[in-house]
Amino acid sequence: MAKERFKLCVSTYLFLEKEDKILLHLRQNTGYADGNYSLVAGHLDGNETATQAIIREAKEEANIIINPEDLKVVHIMHRTSDRENIDIFFSCKKWTGEIKNLEPHKCGGLTFASKNNLPENTLEYVKIALSNEKSGQFYSELGF
After folding, report:
1. Using CA atoms, how far apart are residues 1 and 20, in angstroms rounded to an integer?
2. What DSSP element (H or E) covers 124?
3. Potential cystine with 137: which of 119, 124, 132, 141 (Cβ 3.0-4.6 Å)?
4. pLDDT tens digit at each of 144 positions of the chain
5. Where exactly are the structural domains of the chain?
6. 43 vs 106: CA distance, rounded Å
7. Cβ-based neighbours of 6, under 8 Å, separated by 6 or more
8. Domain 8-142: which CATH class?
9. What are phi and psi of 72, to 5 degrees?
10. 60: part of which helix (H) or strand (E)?
């Protein structure tokens, strides 16, 4: 029996860090995981690098400017949901601009939360990626 084929989606996620906290994004009106916390994130639009994608998403979603040299890939996750996902998690501790929710139609708010005490309604794969990053595990697989 052949396995079902999934659409492959490459996404970038931002661990924007301030002290011992990380910026969370409350999803709303998206049709996926609404009411749960995630990260500033997005899909590659095509004809852009993962670094360019997360810089674009940070500007579009949170009103901040990030220089490529201030980003570091800290975790890659290959997971399945209703599709197959390659998730690239970047860490960043330096940016310019005032953090502001520029997508109130998709985001119920941006807030910094303790990396050691995330809200219960944080997406599970985000919690796993953060835990793996803290332990130095660069790659993980989920849902297979």
Report:
1. 48
2. helix 124-135
3. 132
4. 455 666 889 999 999 999 999 999 999 999 889 999 999 999 999 899 999 999 999 999 999 999 999 999 999 999 998 889 999 999 999 999 999 999 999 999 999 999 999 999 999 999 999 999 999 999 999 998
5. 8-142
6. 15
7. 80, 82, 83, 84
8. alpha beta
9. -140, 130
10. helix 50-62
Contacts of 48 (CB under 8 A, 6+ apart): 56
54: its two tokens: 């997360």
In angstroms, the CA 40 to CA 128 distance is: 16
Q: What is 64-102 written as a DSSP string?
A: -B--GGGEEEEEEEEEESSSEEEEEEEEE---BS----S
Amino acid of residue 134: K
